[in-house]
Amino acid sequence: MSRILAIASGLALLLLAACATTPAPPRAAAERPLTILVSIDAFRADYLDRGVTPNLSRLAAEGAHGAMRPSFPSKTFPNHYAIVTGLRPDRNGIVANNMTDPAIPGVVFSMSNEAAVVDARWWNEAEPIWVTAERAGKVTGTEFWPGSEAAIQGVRPHYFTHFNMATPSNDRVDQVLAWLDKPPAERPRFETLYFDIVDAAGHAYGPDSKEVNQAAATVDAAIGRLVDGLKARGIVANIVVVADHGMAAVSASRRVFIDDYVPKGAYHTLDMGPIGTIYPEPGREAEVKAALVGSHPHLECWERGRLPERLHYGHNPRTAPIFCLPQTGWVLTTHDAHARNPEGGEHGYDNASPEMAAVFVAAGPAFRHGVTLPTFDNVDVYPLLAKLVGVAPRPNDGKLTDLAPALAR
Ligand code: AMP
Ligand code: ZN
Ligand code: ZN
Q1: Model-level pTM?
Q2: CB 117 near ligand 1, within 6 Å
Q3: What confidence tens digit (pLDDT) does each residue in 313-324 have?
Q4: How confident is the model at residue 338 (pLDDT cuts 50, 70, 90)?
Q5: Dist CA 203 CA 206 (whole Å)
Q6: What's the burial of 60, exposed, middle or buried (CB within 10 Å: 0-12/13-18/19+)?
Q7: CA 291–ligand 1 middle distance (angstroms)
Q8: In this structure, which CATH number among 3.90.380.10, 3.40.720.10, 3.30.1360.30, 3.30.70.60 belongs to the domain 34-247+350-406?
Q9: Do 321 and 281 contact (CB within 8 A), yes or no?
């Protein structure tokens, strides 16, 4: 027994000696700043220039900002998942807000289908950054993000909240801050925060409305609350603010009526408006294809697998058999449909349209001051996040080189 004790104390002495001679790890590695990814749904890149968002403007001046090209289609779920996986919708599996999968028969995935949103089968084609971080032993917290409620590849964020559109913007910020008040070992190293009131105002009143500016100002104040809350706690963070897409004004005079081309009973659709996903009824495939595929005034339709290469879309079996894309600002509809606001706003359009450009603002110790970036693809945000969080990025469609000018050496 005493021999074992003697060996043990000898080992302890050796360890102490080793500690005395081994240099301490560099502080930066030991204290990697927290990363917070903030999404302001439908905050178009140029909203930053409206003079209504002083906190975002301050972050942009202290860090980097630019316009980001969303992935196609410029819809909410596909783009949120592209940002946290670095894979475009065709490869991340979230090809639309509404979709079906031949491998998941009888289910229509939609944002409001709570059973589908928490079902990992829809999300498992990609690995979001919080899963990679959790696997690397880093605590993560998500105050809303598409996919965060599912156990993707068996892993959920350490902290997450079920989506609730009614949660006020400030309460979302307070939840993100509350997780940072946990004991040190339980504090997240990566957090997400999501705001949706700018999107709601954009749809209802259009991108050029005072309501959009008011919503932008409200979210901006919430971001100010976040920055102040971090400062009060002495927490250093890299804050990356993104949007999933922009917003285009639509008008009652810019409508394409699909029933002018193909009879109603010949197909069904899961999305109609700024995009159209068309599923011919059994036996009517040839008729629908002949009527729709090709160019029409203000509308173009393609078969699955035949979309232009630059859209990187239409190969995943979850994409619709026929995909229609109106010209930006035009809406695909039927003569008997009631539009939510024919003079409001829409997104989903060609991701190269300037109206679809999304905001990007990043500030914190990882970023140089006052950098304006040329337009880049939103999948580039993922390798940036991996670098900030300190995990090896999974294979992805993004390029860190596009964002390199923003990074402090
Ligand atoms: P969109 O139809 O593409 O404009 O989608 C925007 C809407 O997506 C928002 O108004 C939210 O209601 C909804 N949304 C955003 N995040 C989530 C989520 N994590 N779960 C369910 N719905 C969401
Ligand atoms: Zn959105
Ligand atoms: Zn929207």
Answers
A1: 0.93
A2: yes
A3: 999 999 999 999
A4: confident
A5: 6
A6: buried
A7: 32
A8: 3.40.720.10
A9: no
pLDDT value of residue 30: 56
Identify the sign of the CA torsion 155, 158, 162, 165: negative
3-state secondary structure of 244: coil
- Summarised one tens digit per residue, pLDDT across range 149-196 is 999 999 999 999 999 999 999 999 999 999 999 999 999 999 999 999
Look at ligand 1, atom 8, and give the residue with the nearest C-alpha. Answer: 76
Ligand having the closest approach to the CA of 83 = 2
pLDDT in tens, 131-160: 999 999 999 999 999 999 999 999 999 999
Q: In the block, which residue shows the tokens 């339709």?
A: 301
Q: Tell me which residue of 179, 147, 160 sits closest to 34, measured CA to CA.
A: 179
Instruction: Please count the other Cβ atoms lying within 10 Å of the Cβ belonging to residue 22.
Output: 8
255-343 CATH pick, 3.30.70.260, 3.30.1360.180, 3.50.30.80, 1.10.10.10: 3.30.1360.180
Band of residue 339 on the pLDDT scale cut at 50, 70, 90:
low
* Of 179, 180, 209, 184, the residue nearest 197 (C-alpha): 209
Residue of 361, 333, 359, 312 whose CA lies nearest to 87: 312
Q: What does the domain layout of the chain look like in residue ranges?
A: 34-247+350-406, 255-343
Confidence check: pLDDT of 3 > 80: no
Residue whose Cα lies nearest atom 14 of ligand 1: it is 111
pLDDT tens-digit series, residues 202-253: 999 999 999 999 999 999 999 999 999 999 999 999 999 999 999 999 999 9
For ligand 1, atom 20, the nearest C-alpha belongs to 163
Answer left, alpha or beta for residue 262, where phi above 0 means left and psi between -120 and 50 means alpha.
beta
